[in-house]
Design goal:
Order of helices and strands: HEHEHEHH
Oligomer: single chain
Shape: globular
Helix content: 40-55%
Largest sheet: 3 strands, parallel
């Protein structure tokens, strides 16, 4: 029987795990509009990566993220689900 390797483990919330995964994936831009339950994602990303910004609303956050992605940067944008209503215009047009 093979002996299992031990590894460093941490107990994370789902939001913290998402932020950590984004960091490990090499994201260079993270932006969001604060609102529960997604606020912790950007807060934790800022703690571990230090490259995060709050936006004045969800539309601006998505525009910054899409602009960064168009410029070949890896980006993440977080918002609560109803925030997509505010960001609908750039969301629909980002695929063009």
């Amino acid at each position: 029987m093979a002996k299992a390797k031990t590894s460093n483990q941490a107990l994370l919330s789902g939001n913290e795990a998402l932020a950590y995964g984004a960091y490990e994936a090499g994201l260079s831009v993270a932006c969001a509009y604060p609102g529960t339950p997604s606020t912790e994602i950007l807060e934790h990303f800022a703690e571990i990566a230090g490259k995060a910004q709050w936006s004045p609303n969800e539309k601006v956050a998505l525009e910054v993220g899409v602009g960064a992605a168009y410029g070949k940067a890896r980006a993440i944008v977080t918002m609560k689900h109803v925030g997509l209503n505010v960001a609908a215009d750039p969301f629909v047009n980002s695929g063009l």
